[in-house]
Design brief:
By secondary structure, this protein is mainly α. The chain has three domains: 100 residues, Fumarase C, Chain B, domain 1 (Orthogonal Bundle); 246 residues, Up-down Bundle (Fumarase C, Chain A, domain 2), CATH 1.20.200; 93 residues, Orthogonal Bundle (Ribonucleotide Reductase Protein R1, domain 1), CATH 1.10.40.30. Helices cover 61% and strands 5% of the residues. It is elongated and about 100 Å long. The relative contact order is 0.10. It binds arginine. Arginine binds next to helix 6.
């Protein structure tokens, strides 16, 4: 029996029922749905719309439905369409006609909006925890291996020598901002739409602030039509997830690169790797590759959410039912990927492969130029001298290790013996003490900031 039986003579086609049900997706919000209904029942009693006895019957019934859903002993069929009808139908079965009073002064339109906001609040706090775990994993890795020399790249070409810690800090800051973005979104999520009704409000003397408070919301969505029609908070969270996935995907890509013999910088933990069914030597960075791949899915979710809403007239339209599949996927994927990424950083090992490789490397060319700047030469001229030294070495099939003081002085009389101290990659990194530079003291300062 559908809730609109009074108006309809026949039921929906079986295909329509299967096509339009959302139970398969929104049953995941049954805890939120029941929490919202309990708050609504208490509020109805507080303004005299149901009696104290009726309230208690409703509350006890809702608890029973929740227990059955938790235990899996109540399995609503798709003819009930969605979680709201599933809960209400079972409630009426359990407590009788008084169960029908629960829907006073509310609609599924404000109910679904309420459930999603409650669900989001819970997931945002889980994401926050996972993201802070990832930042911690990065900081721990910096503390154990951060003082490993690596090339800093631009265009994936060697640029300047840096500490690994400097590189990983860039990611730690990105994840810190991902957390901030979600906390910021939470401010807009954390408002109760309940009591908006279908879109026009209700003639009953309800107390929306009371139900909001009972559900733990910080405030109300002020306009009833906005309350049921808006999905920008859903899009905002999905956008924050998409951006977070971009960061995870960049880390994943670097882990994939770094774990190749060509880079050889890291060895992935076994727990996050797989072997090959044919090539016995393989240790593939599958977890990282999956994170990179799943980022694409989350972008798809965001695109779906933006596109789904853009042409909708106010207020509720059934199109909006499609929002949960995309939202749930975006949030679950981001949550799992964040946790997996933290696990990867914790379990890998770092090898010092670059201290040798970078001796005399052309990535020290900026050092030569900076040395000459210290001797009073304008940077543009110093850049030219250094460039011609690169060419001189290259023409002879070697690197800066070929340079003698005599050769250096042929290119600029400003060179002295002292310059050889500048041609050491580790000291080159350590000289960069400017705010945010790669010098270890700066790495330590930022680690402390991020831990604080
Ligand atoms: N199943 C619907 C959804 O998830 C609930 C709201 C239905 N409202 C309506 N007017 N048909 O969006």
């Amino acid at each position: 029996m559908a809730l609109w039986d009074g108006r309809f003579e026949g039921g929906p086609a079986a295909e329509m029922q299967a096509y339009s049900e959302s139970l398969g997706v929104d049953l995941r919000m049954f805890e939120e749905d029941i929490l919202g209904s309990q708050a609504h029942a208490r509020m109805l009693a507080s303004v005299g719309l149901v009696s104290g006895l009726e309230r208690d019957q409703l509350l006890a019934g809702l608890e029973a439905v929740r227990d059955e859903l938790r235990a899996g002993t109540y399995r609503p069929g798709i003819e009930l369409e969605d979680v709201h009808m599933a809960v209400e139908t079972r409630l009426i079965e359990l407590v009788g006609p008084v169960g029908g009073k629960l829907h006073t002064a509310r609609s599924r339109n404000d109910q679904v909006a309420t459930d999603v906001r409650l669900w989001l609040k819970g997931r945002i706090s889980e994401l926050d925890l996972a993201q802070s775990g990832l930042v911690e994993a990065l900081l721990d890795r910096i503390e154990s291996d951060g003082r490993t020399l690596i090339p800093g790249f631009t265009h994936l070409q060697r640029g300047q020598p840096i500490w690994l810690g400097h590189h990983l800090l860039a990611y730690a800051w990105m994840v810190r901002r991902d957390r901030e973005r979600l906390r910021d979104a939470l401010v807009r999520v954390d408002r109760s739409p309940l009591g908006a009704g279908a879109m026009a409000g209700t003639p009953h003397p309800i107390d929306r602030a009371r139900s909001a408070e009972l559900m733990g919301f910080s405030g109300l969505v002020d306009n009833a039509m906005d309350a049921v029609a808006a999905r920008d908070h859903v899009q905002e969270v999905a956008a924050a997830c998409a951006i977070a996935m971009t960061h995870l995907s960049r880390m994943a890509e670097e882990l994939v690169l770094w774990s190749t013999p060509e880079f050889g910088l890291v060895r992935m933990g076994e727990a996050w790797s797989t072997g090959s069914s044919i090539m016995p030597q393989k240790r593939n960075p599958d977890a990282a590759e999956l994170v990179r791949g799943k980022a694409g899915r989350v972008y798809g979710d965001l695109t779906a959410l933006l596109t789904m809403v853009k042409g909708l007239p106010l207020a509720y339209n059934r199109d909006l039912q499609e929002d949960r599949e995309a939202l749930f996927d975006a949030v679950h994927t981001t949550l799992a990927s964040t946790r997996v990424m933290a696990g990867m950083w914790r379990d890998l090992s770092v090898r010092d492969v670059y201290t040798q490789r970078l001796q005399g490397d052309f990535l020290l060319a900026t050092e030569l130029a900076d040395y000459l700047v210290g001797q009073g030469l304008p940077f543009r001229d110093a850049h030219h001298v250094s460039g011609s030294l690169v060419k001189w070495c290259e023409d002879r099939g070697g690197n800066f290790s070929l340079l003698t003081l005599e050769v250096l002085r042929q290119h600029s009389p400003l060179f002295t013996e002292e310059v050889f101290g500048w041609l050491d990659p580790a000291s080159a990194a350590e000289r960069r003490t400017s705010h945010g530079g790669t010098a270890w003291c700066e790495v330590e300062r930022q680690v402390a900031l991020l831990r604080g």
